[in-house]
Specification:
The complex is a heterodimer of chains A (246) and B (166). Chain A has 246 residues and is an alpha+beta fold. Chain A has helices at 5-12, 18-30, 32-53, 62-69, 89-103, 128-136, 201-205, 207-222, 230-238, and strands at residues 117-120, 123-126, 148-156, 161-167, 174-180, 183-190, 223-227. Chain A folds into two domains: 5-56, no CATH class; 74-238, no CATH class. Helix content of chain A is 43%, strand content 18%. In chain A, a hairpin with a 2-residue loop joins strand 5 (174-180) and strand 6 (183-190). The longest helix of chain A has 22 residues, at 32-53. Chain A is rod-shaped and about 100 Å long. The relative contact order of chain A is 0.14. By secondary structure, chain B is mainly α. Chain B has two domains: 1-100, Rna Polymerase Sigma Factor, Chain: A; 102-166, Winged helix-like DNA-binding domain superfamily/Winged helix DNA-binding domain (Arc Repressor Mutant, subunit A), CATH 1.10.10.10. Chain B is 79% helix and 0% strand. Chain B is built from eight helices and no strands. Chain B has helices spanning 4-29, 32-48, 59-80, 87-99, 103-113, 117-128, 133-140, 144-165. The chains are: A alpha+beta (246), B mainly alpha (166). The A-B interface holds A 5-6, 9-10, 13, 15, 40-41, 44-45, 47-52, 54-58, 60-61, 63-65, 67-70, 107-108, 110, 198, 200-202, 204-205 and B 11, 14-15, 17-20, 22-23, 26, 33, 36-41, 43-44, 47, 70, 73-74, 77-78, 80-81, 101, 104-105, 108-109, 112, 123, 126-128, 130, 132-133, 148-149, 151-152, 155-156, 158-159, 162.
Chain lengths: 246, 166
């Protein structure tokens, strides 16, 4: 009796109807070669399952758990305004390149709230690593491996010190935080999918470039005067980012 | 029918499925980062389109299909943007990753990595994920005969490369 290899494979996979299956089983008993081939198919199946079994035990990234649960995402805090070129454009372009440079590392971001940001009394404030970086890190200190990057610092029209930041952790957005009392209040939080719809992987891929206009708009809206240079940042840091009397 | 209660339950089921979706996506993308991106997109799409899921259909098959479509979209958009397809680097990454695993796992996975994509996906769905032929054929949108012949060719190739190594 000749049995095709596909039939033996289907037999080993438990895919045959009972009549065909019985015929193959009978043939196996008579023909050691058929038996050997079935055993080979079964062994290969077992080998594959064994080779990939360990992957199921790996920890699931938070962003995927959040996506599976459909956890509602953080929305951008401030309203989005349209981009209008101004005399700040050169500065903003420079900042854009910094932010994009950081943003490109992101790709897909999950939309659940990040532990670096807390909800406090109706607003969002920076916490943990983000709060520390906002208080201590200079914009000129750009360490690629740092979890937070400061894009630029500026004094807002309100007189507060504000800083544009990005977070390199896979789960985190970019934004602008301003110092009020003892908190870094998050004024803008941009999701990379803002403005690109998020309906396809392609949209996520361009997230790095979609990210910056939102932040830069916010900077442009709020900035009073020039962005801080390094010495102005150091001075601001020394005074605990409290508004100077002017 | 998807009542609210059923949907909550679907979320739990989705959470439980994530490890298998990652494993499947990794066999598609051959790169963990791309795989996770694709899984995330697929999960989001699944929740958006939950109404399209017939509750008598297998949720895992439906999700595998969405994962695969998300990956196809991703590959197409990369090609549109003229980016070099990363298969080769990704192949190297699989190699590095598997270096840390036991030798037999390494040889199985590298044998898998050498398969043409259509065969690798068939093996991944049937032999790794354990889908019946019919479900796997539906996921891929191909006739069952096409699936079995891909599977048979893939197995012959795997067998040969494992024997050559072993």
């Amino acid at each position: 009796m000749t049995i095709s290899d596909e039939t033996l494979m289907a037999f080993a996979d438990g895919e045959l109807d009972s009549a065909t299956s019985a015929a193959v089983a009978a043939a196996m008993r008579e023909d050691p070669d058929i038996e050997r081939r079935v055993a080979q198919h079964r062994a290969l199946r077992a080998k594959l399952q064994a080779a990939y079994a360990a992957e199921l035990d790996e920890a699931t990234p938070d962003r995927l758990l959040a996506a599976a649960r459909g956890t509602p995402g953080l929305r951008k805090v401030a309203g989005r305004t349209r981009w209008q070129p101004t005399r700040w454009q050169p500065l903003v372009s420079m900042a854009a390149s910094l932010l994009i440079g950081v943003g490109l590392g992101y790709f897909v971001q999950h939309r659940a709230s990040s532990p670096m940001i807390e909800n406090a009394g109706g607003g969002l404030v920076a916490s943990g690593t983000l709060a520390k970086a906002l208080s201590n890190q200079l914009a000129s200190e750009r360490i690629a491996s740092a979890p937070v990057q400061i894009g630029l610092s500026f004094v807002a029209k309100s007189g507060e010190f504000c800083r544009a930041f990005t977070m390199t952790a896979a789960a985190s957005p970019a934004g602008v935080a301003c110092r009020r009392a003892n908190d870094w209040q998050i004024r803008v939080l941009a999701q990379p999918s803002d403005g690109v719809g998020g309906e396809s992987a392609a949209a996520y891929r361009t997230a790095g470039s979609a990210l910056s206009p939102v932040i830069l708009d916010a900077v442009q809206q709020q900035i009073a005067g020039e962005p801080l240079d390094q010495s102005a940042e150091i001075a601001a840091r020394q005074q605990g980012w409290r508004p100077s009397r002017r | 029918m998807n009542t609210l209660g059923t949907r909550e339950n679907v979320r739990d089921q989705l959470v439980a499925l994530v490890p298998r979706l990652r494993r499947f996506a990794r066999n598609l993308a051959r790169n963990q980062h791309d795989a996770d991106d694709v899984v995330q997109v697929a999960l989001e799409r699944a929740l958006e389109n939950l109404a399209q899921w017939r509750s008598d259909a297998r949720l895992d098959s439906w999700l595998f299909k969405i994962v695969r479509n998300a990956w196809i979209d991703e590959v197409r958009s990369r090609m549109r943007r003229n980016k070099v397809f990363v298969a080769e680097e990704a192949g190297a990454e699989v190699g590095t990753d598997t270096m840390e695993r036991a030798t037999d796992i390494m040889s199985v996975q590298s044998a898998m990595a050498r398969l043409p994509e259509d065969q690798r996906v068939a093996v991944s769905l049937v032999l790794v994920e354990g889908l019946p032929y019919k479900e796997a054929a539906d996921v891929l949108g191909i006739p069952i005969g096409t699936l079995t012949s891909r599977l048979a060719r893939a197995r012959a190739a795997l067998q040969t490369s494992l024997e050559a190594e072993g």
